[in-house]
Amino acid sequence: MAVFLAMGIATANELINGKLDTIAVGPQNYPTPTGWMVEATKVISGTHYDGCSSEPWCNVLDIGGYGLFFKPFQGSIGDEITVHFYQDNPASPGTKYTLSGYAAGEANYCGFFTTNSPPPQTLFVIQFLDAGNSVIASNGFDLVAAGLPSSGPGSMQSFLFTTPQVTAPPNAAVVRVGASMINAYSTSGAQSFFVDAFELLSEAPPGAPVITNQPKHTTVSAGATAVFTVGVSNPAGVSYQWQFNGANLSDGGKISGANTATLTVTDVSASEVGRYRVRLTNAGGSVLSSEATLAIVGINFYPVISITGKIGDTYRVDYSTALEPATWIPLSTNVLTSSPQLILDATSPGDNTRFYRAVLLQ
Length: 362
Ligand SMILES: [Ca+2]
Hints:
The strands form 8 sheets. The chain has a 6-stranded antiparallel β-sheet with strand order 4-3-7-13-9-10, with no helix packed on it. Strands 5, 6, 8, 11, 12 and 14 form a 6-stranded antiparallel β-sheet that branches. The model is unreliable at 1-10 (pLDDT under 50). The chain is elongated and about 95 Å long. It has strands spanning 23-24, 32-33, 37-42, 46-47, 52-55, 67-70, 81-90, 96-105, 121-129, 135-142, 160-162, 166-167, 174-184, 193-203, 211-213, 218-220, 226-229, 231-232, 239-244, 247-248, 255-256, 262-265, 274-282, 285-288, 292-296, 304-307, 314-320, 329-335, 341-344, 355-361. It is built from no helices and 30 strands. By secondary structure, the protein is mainly beta. It folds into 3 domains: 23-203, Jelly Rolls (Sandwich); 211-296, Immunoglobulin-like; 304-361. Calcium ion binds at residues 19-21, 59, 62, 65-67, 196-197.
């Protein structure tokens, strides 16, 4: 296993879809990971839409997922291809970051050779942008120098690369991380480069909010209310911004408390199921909570009525929610094909109590 220097790490993965397992067709010709950007250009030909794609055979860790397949063969000497793959997240000055991820090349990948000019580069990248979206600091970590394996996707899972820790400079508003393949060109066969399963970990600066209680995974029944809370040891001057699947929430509809320590989600349905987290900010910096999932569970017990009688006879099953007085409501009419015959009451979970009777029909 090849590693960069790993430093102290404080919080959970800040990336959305860091494992690259959720994919969609965007501006590129083929599916790429959602929540991530791809910028590919060739020196002469210009913008290119097939510099990389999501593929199942370069996936690591989670069965059934995808990794990212970089395509140096789309370039040529003199018309080299450069592919930047990245995700942007909010950052605050003084926060320290490390990026880790899995990577591998194939034996003939151009990045293993330095004879061309300009030479190819194969990097993990951590950049910082200011509020105007201008890059104010750029850190590239050379994967080949760090021991990028050359045995293709099969070698990826043994090579988790972790960058040195870098600090967001003054005026940093955004941290941009990912992988870049620069000045790449076609060689012959077995020449690709792969990445998967990124984690961006941060360490907030002194004075930033300190989380003492992380939001917890929550399971409710459909239509119920879910509550997420975060605890902070230094709450003075802290502002809160809750997120759902990485996007900022605001109050309204089913959501309240989006800018407080407690987020309330009412009338939970499938569209509210997902990942919740909160960003806490004060004058000292900002910190992101770990993710808590919201799930719906419906566990119900269904009564089964057993009728013993003559095969071919017809029974109506009635139910009532009380016995004195009883108001019998027909549930089903059944011709016995066996004895006893079992009849499930799938409508029962709405009532706390039900009584049943079977009536032989003449
Ligand atoms: Ca993956």
